[in-house]
Amino acid sequence: MNWHQIGSWIFPYIEPLTPAQKNDEAQRLQKDLAAIRAAAWNSNEERALDEAQKVAAAEMERVRTAEAKATTYLAVLAALVPIIITLQGANWEKKAGPAPDAARLFVLALSTFYVAGAGFNAFKTLQVRGFQKVGESEIVAAWKSPNPFRRLCRGTLLATRNSRDVVNEKVTRILVTHEHLLRAFGLFILLLLLDPLFYAMGFRNVTQDQPTPKVAIQTPAAGVPSELKSTIAQPTVPPGGNTARTAASEAQSQERDEPRTDPRSADPLPMQAFPQPGAAPALQIAPVPQVRGAAP
Questions:
Q1: Considering the entire predicted model, what is its pTM?
Q2: How far is CA 256 from the centre of its chain?
Q3: CA geometry: angle at 173 spanning 167 and 174, to 5°?
Q4: Nearest Cα to 11, choosing from 187, 223, 275?
Q5: What is d(CA 4, CA 15) in angstroms, rounded to the nearest whole number?
Q6: What is the DSSP letter of 212?
Q7: By three-state DSSP, how is residue 238 classified?
Q8: What does the radius of gyration of the chain's CA atoms come to, in whole angstroms?
Q9: How far is it, in rounded angstroms, from Cα 197 to Cα 203?
Q10: CA distance 170 to 127
Q11: Alpha helix locations (H) across the chain?
């Protein structure tokens, strides 16, 4: 097994012909064309023309089959593109399973590479190429000659032989497309099996094993005032201020600023007596001042 066979097994491709092989193919083409021109169908020209047309129809059928398969493969590739985008998005967003990211990215990149190769060869198969065939002018010219069936048979065979290289290239391209799709399909199956395999081996995703955070709620003491209970959990920052103080300190400052009054210690308001209407005013007796003098 040489390097070309190993490389074609990993990534199928069409090996270009060497200069010696190209020379041999050119000589074989010229030899076949010369044999067709020198052939004579004197015994049964109609049977020879029928066989030539069958060969031309078989070559055209090969072209139609290759192009129909290329169209089908392109439809399959178009359906695979959303799957690749979904898998790639799940991998980058860390929504995949416990398989390592490196293994998943490697398999996904390799499968995408095979999908791209299959698409390239399918488009090359559908590429418009020049074919030779017997047209109206050849048929008219053949019927003007003394042997129309012989000339028409010769023209059909020459056109078929000149177009064989193009037909062979289309068929080879569709074979390479088929090999690429087989490898891409196998890699997609492997990509889908990565997470179950690693899960069965005991691997777990980091996000799945991470414990959920618990929120601790602190309850204030029983002796804390009700105003302080509602604001003891969070610090408050006054707008525009540079320093932050807690709501507990604010509550304490309010308590210090507000004077506390005891209803039991407060003096009652003095009662004033007002005279009744129509009554005489009461006499007020002024006190007599006492003068302290010396004893006689």
A1: 0.64
A2: 64
A3: 95
A4: 187
A5: 8
A6: P
A7: coil
A8: 53
A9: 9
A10: 9
A11: 3-10, 19-38, 45-92, 101-125, 136-144, 148-162, 164-200, 206-209, 226-229, 247-257
- Give the pair of three-digit tokens for residue 193: 């099996």
CB 132 within 8 A of CB 162: yes
Distance between CA atoms of 77 and 67, rounded to whole angstroms? 15
C-alpha angle 10-11-12 in degrees, rounded to nearest 5:
115
pLDDT interval class at 233 (50, 70, 90)? very low
For 238, phi then psi, to 5°, come to -70, 140
Q: How far is it, in rounded angstroms, from Cα 249 to Cα 263?
A: 27
Query: Considering only CA atoms, which of 212, 181, 175 is closest in space to residue 62?
Result: 175
Instruction: State both tokens at 7.
Output: 């490389």
Q: What amino acid occupies position 174?
A: I
pLDDT tens column, 26-46: 999 999 999 999 988 777 888
DSSP 120-175: HHHHHHTS--------HHHHHHHHHSS-HHHHHHHHHHHHHHHTHHHHHHHHHHHH
- Report the residue count for the chain: 296
Query: What pLDDT, in 10s, does the model give residues 185-214?
Result: 999 899 888 888 888 887 666 554 455 555
